[in-house]
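Revision sheet: structure tokens.
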Amino acid sequence: MTASFPRQFGKYVLLKPLAKGGMGEIYVAALGQLDGFDKLCVIKKVIPQSDDGKAKRFLDEAKVVLRLAHSGLVNTFDAGQVGDEFYIAMEMVEGKDLREVWNRCVRVRHRIPLEVALHVAREVARALAYVHSYGELNLVHRDVAPPNIMLAYNGDVKLTDFGLARSALKQEHTQPGVVFGRAAYLAPEQARGELADPCTDVYSLAVVLWELLTGHQYLQIAGLDPVAALALVRHPKPTPPSTRAPWVTPSLDQVVMRALSPERGKRFASAEEFRLALSDAITESAPRTDVARVSELMHAIYAKAIAEEATEREVFLKEVLPTFRAATTPAPVVLATPLPARSPASRPPPLPSLPQPRAAALQDLEARKRAKREAAFRVLAELAAEERGPESG
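Predicted:
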């Protein structure tokens, strides 16, 4: 642990920093008060020195994500304020984001399998279908990109980071012409500063899928000046993934090309429609597509990291947290002068014992009763004899 960690943050204990970006900072943290009942989580907090616009976007994200609950989303279970810092508490996904997985595959020369690419795209489409249809929020993510897609070591796929999302709950509304999001994954209408809708997220997801299928970047904007890069994003020229990946079937080509249409009216009308089309293509070209294939990939390229992270979690729970709490928990208060012991004279006298009946007295009482009964019988017998006497004479 560094000199500043672990440290208390409201009801949480921050264990180590994970990342720092333009919007805020992210930490591994623990929630719990009793040893053995701690739960590891992730705390995302806004940087206190941030401008008001960033703080509002952070609060907007909290308003949105606390309402959502879906297996395809990173669960957010708490939000609040500690001092002058706002925070969001999220589940800790044991895995990596898709950008890190991509880079790792490049380093170890391991191609992302077709089944993994298709499963990731279908699961994100499933999560987006839920998000887009949730209540009356009219929610759009607006930043569907590899850094915001988590792949768990067990194969789960989860969408995260609604910091740029648009919904009816938001306080801050994007000004006309203002562009948010990662340029390479922006839909053309986003790059033009137009209002985003569910078709915008469909396009961004299609870009992610195209890159996973081919192993290449969809738009070559690296090294371009911002004006040229934005012009390329606004006027893309889609090419079928099969031109780079001959194993892509015609039906899958057709699905991807429709989702990549520069005109949003020609795309799939919803993320659910995109998901269903992907499912049909998967049945034909990759029937083994499932969560197990994602888990196989993650264990193949992160075997060492999985073991190291599991050990670190055990150290956090069994050593770091108990030690930290023992050092920061106040000692119990002990009275300076103990209460005096009560003297025998001040104790109340014992209650008198009740008298116990004696066996001899009971026996004597019974004997007297028998004697009285016998005397009464004799008197009755004598009276009866006297009445019979004159009759016998």
